[in-house]
Amino acid sequence: MTDIWVYVALGISALSYVVAAYFYQWVKKLPTANSKLDEVGSLIRQGAFTFLKREYRILSIFTLCVAAIMFVLFPSPIWSDNVNLLSNLSMVGAYIFGTVLSALAGYVGISIATIANLKAASAARESIQKSFMAGFRGGAVMGMAVVGTSLAGMAIIYLLSRDSNVTMAFSFGASSLALFAKAGGGIFTKTADIAADLTGKVELGIPEDDPRNPAVIADNVGDNVGDVAGMGADLFDSNVAAMAATMIIAMALGEISFMFCLTSLGLLASIIGVLLARMGKNGNPSRALNGGTYITCGIFAVLTFIASLVGAYDLRMWGAAMVGMVAGVIIGLTSDFFTGDDKKPVAKVAEACQSGPAFTILTGFSYGLLSALPALVGIGLAALISYKLCAPLGEGYAMLGISFSAIGMLSIVGMIISNDAYGPIVDNARGIAEMAGLGDKVLEITDELDAAGNTAKAITKGFSIGAAGLTVIALLGAFQEVVAAAGTRIVFDLMDPLVFFGMLVGSAIPAVFSAMLMTGVSRNSQLLVSEIHRQFSTIPGLREGHATPDYARCIDIATVGSIRELIPAGLTAILATLAVGFIGGVQAVGGYLTGNIVSGLLLALVMSNAGGLWDNAKKFIEAGNYGGKGSDAHKAAVIGDTVGDPFKDTAGPSINTQITVVSLVASLSAVLFLTYSLF
Amino acid sequence: MTDIWVYVALGISALSYVVAAYFYQWVKKLPTANSKLDEVGSLIRQGAFTFLKREYRILSIFTLCVAAIMFVLFPSPIWSDNVNLLSNLSMVGAYIFGTVLSALAGYVGISIATIANLKAASAARESIQKSFMAGFRGGAVMGMAVVGTSLAGMAIIYLLSRDSNVTMAFSFGASSLALFAKAGGGIFTKTADIAADLTGKVELGIPEDDPRNPAVIADNVGDNVGDVAGMGADLFDSNVAAMAATMIIAMALGEISFMFCLTSLGLLASIIGVLLARMGKNGNPSRALNGGTYITCGIFAVLTFIASLVGAYDLRMWGAAMVGMVAGVIIGLTSDFFTGDDKKPVAKVAEACQSGPAFTILTGFSYGLLSALPALVGIGLAALISYKLCAPLGEGYAMLGISFSAIGMLSIVGMIISNDAYGPIVDNARGIAEMAGLGDKVLEITDELDAAGNTAKAITKGFSIGAAGLTVIALLGAFQEVVAAAGTRIVFDLMDPLVFFGMLVGSAIPAVFSAMLMTGVSRNSQLLVSEIHRQFSTIPGLREGHATPDYARCIDIATVGSIRELIPAGLTAILATLAVGFIGGVQAVGGYLTGNIVSGLLLALVMSNAGGLWDNAKKFIEAGNYGGKGSDAHKAAVIGDTVGDPFKDTAGPSINTQITVVSLVASLSAVLFLTYSLF
After folding, report:
1. β-bridge mates for residue B493, sequence order
2. Most buried among A296, A455, B224, B531, using CB within 10 Å?
3. DSSP track, A75-136
4. What's the rounded Cα separation, in Å, for the pair A98 and A666?
5. Interface residue B499 vs chain A (CB under 8 A)
6. In the A/B pair of chains, how many CB contacts fall below 8 A?
7. With contacts defined as CB-CB under 8 Å, which chain A residues touch B598?
8. B332 is in which domain, residue-wise?
9. Distance (Å, rounded) from C-alpha B536 to C-alpha B513?
10. Which of chain B's residues have a Cβ under 8 Å away from the Cβ of A503?
11. Which DSSP helix (H) or strand (E) runs through A453?
12. What is the pTM (predicted TM-score) of this model?
């Protein structure tokens, strides 16, 4: 009987696949404008799949190595007396299952995104509404598939094992793959974007997406592998991690069924939301995207309220989920304030651009720093309120409240992914339209759709950082739970020097991790810039548009470069966790996770928002303010945007995943730390 | 008998005054080159004192307001039954005493620095050794006076009150004044520096310190009010705070006398160190500065070891102090690695400058992020080892160990201030030499002395951030002690949502604080740039050097601007502490302080080191690498340096003080939070 919601979850997951398949067919059946379009589209598609194949090849080797290590160590080392090889095998199986599903999420995303981009470009010749629908439904295929897969995966893992170690291994599989996918894709996309901008827009003065630019296809490939595939893997991971943390805490309390209730109904609400989403005759695309988000929230609130009453779940638990959801919306709105192009910060940064690049950077970075406050207060309050709300239900429920609020914030993740994937699809549509010469009217429409994507992204990014914040607090609770299950009740006392030591080290890790990713982007884009210069100087007629550049060579450079960079950064974070654990034991790890969360959230917020702010300040100037395109202010804004690119699309969003991975590594290794540690 | 070291402290403080007076006379008696020099010097001196006067006027009003509030509230609100008005009055007295001494530290600094700069410039005509001695002994006047004053102040407070509340009030006075002095001076100096560079070097192509530039005097005034007076107040504050935290913890254990032993012998070691410091015939100034630091460390180690044996102090406590000292040196060396102009990071950033300003920023910021790791690990390890070292001595001793390691790290603060103040003095000497036309040979010498100042600064900055880190950990212990004294033993459990809430909010505060300061710099320097443009367009003959610019107007703009900005940033940090305390009580405040420490240290390290790195990368290019002055790489480097200026001289170093102030506010208000809080 308590399993009923697990089966409902499987059913709704199946429904989400049906919707995804329907949208997939719907998008695929849209006509393409001309053969030039198909040609450009297939170049992008090939490039994206080539990257994915090479990335996944490296990652499968990595996964197998980790699987071997896991088999030897978890849950009990094979040399210990109480080892049960079947348990070790189950964990390895769950881990591999997690990586495969996470990889699949990226794969599905690219498959649909590289079709939907063409269709959206073509549809823009007819009307903005049609083009919007192509972009949005393309994104929704991914949204439905990702959330359906994560929910079904979790339900299957639960039904087969009912074991928290196996759940963790599954989540770790999803997260570790997401970490590398996000980092690798993030490095690729910004390598290509920066190199294309610097050579094309700045040096040669040719427009964005001009087909003469050798890096232009790589840039569009980047949108897919970074923003679509990477983001898909990332939100797959957040969603799985939130559920895993909840399950670990809920299992001891017998409240598993409410978790599946929340997540199933969240997916159902998202399904209804994406089916209803539509752009009115004279409506604007931003309103359509955000409207969909609010409607989904409303449906989720009503459905879960009814389910709580019917299932006789305590309304405090429902309240915790609501607190999370509302906090998500508020955090999203504040991040919209700091990055929205109709708000004061963007105008101020654009104004500072007139005084040169140094002021552009200082002003944008300062606003980025300020933007962290409301989001951190929001996450803190959500955690505090949901904890206090559920504390009266009994011991252990308070922490469960926090994890329910994370689930609540992620409830509408299906809608969020749809909105998020919409962005790079219409961005690509714009590029394809330019390259295929579909004319100014089409460019105007795709520009408007693209701008709406940027605004929606601010809100969804707020959601995802907020959710990651609550999730990792819950994961910290899960870590404590795991240690307790091993027989040691610990309190992480801030005045314990091991905790403090761990905290200081932990706080440095997101900084080091970001630095490694950003250095990777710098290094690779400098390589790519050299290659572009080489092509312009050795291919006759390229500058005049009489010759075709060697697009493939640029894609290759970005691919090789990002694959070389993606492993070290992720590995550093994992190894630091193990080092702290083997030096300072579980106390130090508790501190380490906390330091990691605190500085990770801060840096993620600062970088994401500062990056978005610079991007929109540039667009604000390009819209004709402060001298418009080509003015000195615009040049300064381009420099700000270039700095912001790896901030917002490489380092910032990867930090979430880094925190999750580190938390899971800690929980998995907790018993080892208890047994073998220096202090 | 246990008070003997307190009297020794008073004696050695007196000795330090004698040395300061001797150096003062020595520097003053050096000849000045010509009347033009005196004229420029007096403009700078006047400007500095005008700023100081206006700043102190505002701050005295602020101080009186705070004093009134303190009288009403501390240690017990005057409406409570057990109030003792004499206690409240003592606290107010100690608070005012702290502010006055802290202000005095700044005043003494400016008095000597604005003489020593002239003398160092003049002496450079004779030899580099003589010029070095003028700069160094000028700095040493300040070093001796600041440390002597803080030690004597602490000894007096202890002898008069023997009360931890009064000690805290004294420390709060020192810190709150330091916070505003540091912020105000930091905004002033960077406002003038950036505006002078942007208009002079970048727009007009005239050299640094060219007398035609209207902001040139303001720039030199800034070196004094920001780098000398602000720094003096800052290290006065760190030193007092470390002693206060130690006293609060040590008082309960009866170990006060060892604290005075360490601080007295530290000052004695510094006195010997500065008396011995000398530049060899063919020696280089960097070696002279760093050599002095190492010698002082050695003397301190030997003296305190003997004193421990003679006084029968447990060697574990001595060990804790040594751990702090060694950690300080190591942290200093790592920060030297990240900012030194002969090391890899500077070369890499300079190389990135060739690819434009965006890469300059990205590469420098990435190295800044990386640089946080070794320092944070160092602070964490120092805390951990000193804690474990002293834990066997009994309950409460472990935390005392951490505070002794902070004292150990600050033991040689007299030497550190001397080195630190040397920097702006010789920097000023260079400016004065340029303005008074003392010729190329003098400029060459002052350039070399200036470069040595930058290198020494990296090491001393490592020391001061490290010491602040340990001090605030000790202050956290002091906070817990204060709460315990009020009858509530608390454990700051990381899993307590109040602690977590406080931590998230606390981590945002240094970000907000830095953002406010940097925005202040941006805003004011834009104003100042407009004024400079106005002067060039309305004063005929200015560009050709036939007319004198209106220096005073520029000084006035920088003064008014920075005074307007200094109060809000500091007040925000203080009010946020009170808000968190009244919402979440002492648990939330414990988390808040921790979050503040973690993110504050991280941001301070990243900003200070990235700023130093950009500065030195610019100098590296100016030395003829990658195209040298005027090349595109140089232009990019100037942009990096401009971004780095408020990072390293306004926001970065003010964060230390912000953390200290917030910790003291928390301890002072602990009882209020226990009585009146929402949760």
Report:
1. A493
2. B224
3. SS-TTSTT--HHHHHHHHHHHHHHHHHHHHHHHHHHHHHHHHHHHHHHHTTT-HHHHHHHHH
4. 18
5. yes
6. 241
7. 503-504, 507, 595, 598-599
8. 2-676
9. 35
10. 380, 594, 598
11. helix A440-485
12. 0.94
Tell me the pLDDT tens digit for each residue of B586-622: 999 999 999 999 999 999 999 999 999 999 999 899 8
Q: Is the peptide bond before A497 cis (omega within 30 degrees of 0)?
A: no
Contacts of B19 (CB under 8 A, 6+ apart): B140, B144, B271, B274, B275
How many CA within 13 A on the CB side of residue A552? Answer: 5
Bridge partners for A493 per DSSP: B493
A-proximal residues of B, 428-487, CB under 8 Å:
469, 473, 476-477, 480
Half-sphere exposure of A610 (CA within 13 A, CB side): 30
DSSP B442-475: HHHHHHHHHHHHHHHHHHHHHHHHHHHHHHHHHH
Average pLDDT, whole number, for chain A?
90
Kindly compute the dihedral angle of the four CA atoms of residues B114, B117, B118, B122, in this order, to the nearest 10 degrees. 170
Report the C-alpha gap between B550 and B47 in whole angstroms. Answer: 13
Return the residue matching tokens 């006060």: B256
Q: What's the gap in Å between the CA of B490 and the closest CA on chain A?
A: 10
pLDDT score of B201 more than 80: no
Q: How far apart are CA B360 and CA B107, in angstroms?
A: 38
Q: Is A516 exposed, middle or buried (0-12, 13-18, 19+ CB in 10 A)?
A: buried
pLDDT at B251: 86
Structure tokens belonging to residue B501: 């809430």
A-contacting residues in B 512-571 (Cβ below 8 Å)? 512, 514-516, 518-519, 521-522, 526, 529
Using CA atoms, how far residue B485 sits from A158, A294, B395, B480, B665, in Å, is 50, 51, 15, 9, 17
- Partner A contacted by B498 (CB < 8 A): yes
Distance from CA of A26 to the nearest CA of B (A): 43
pLDDT above 80: residue B2: no
Contacts of B537 (CB under 8 A, 6+ apart): none
> Of A593, A521, A246, A529, whose CA–CA distance to A403 is shortest?
A246
Beta-carbon contacts of A114 under 8 Å, excluding residues fewer than 6 positions away, are A41, A44, A45, A48, A224, A428
Torsion of CA A177, A178, A179, A180, to 10 degrees: 60
Give the confidence band of B384 by pLDDT, cuts at 50, 70, 90.
very high
Contacts of A537 by beta carbon, 8 Å cutoff, 6+ apart: none
Nearest to A654 by CA among A75, A62, A180, A14: A180
Measured CA to CA, the distance from residue B244 to residue B474 in angstroms comes to 9
Domain count, chain A: 1
Q: Compute the distance between CA of residue B3 and CA of residue B543 in angstroms, rounded to an integer.
A: 65
Instruction: Please give the C-alpha separations between residue A469 and each of A204, A659, B545, B606, in angstroms, as whole numbers.
Output: 43, 9, 59, 23
Amino acid in the structure at residue B151: L
User: What values do phi and psi take at B493, rounded to 5?
Assistant: -85, 125
CA A671-A673-A679 angle, to 5 degrees, is 145
- Inter-CA distances, A392 with A261, A315, A404, Å: 21, 12, 15
Q: Give, in order, the Cα–Cα distances in Å from A344 to each of A336, A639, B542.
A: 11, 20, 38
What are B268-296's pLDDT values in tens digits?
999 999 999 888 777 788 888 888 889 99
Q: Degrees (nearest 5) of the Cα angle B467, B470, B471? A: 80
Distance between CA atoms of A613 and A605, rounded to whole angstroms?
A: 12
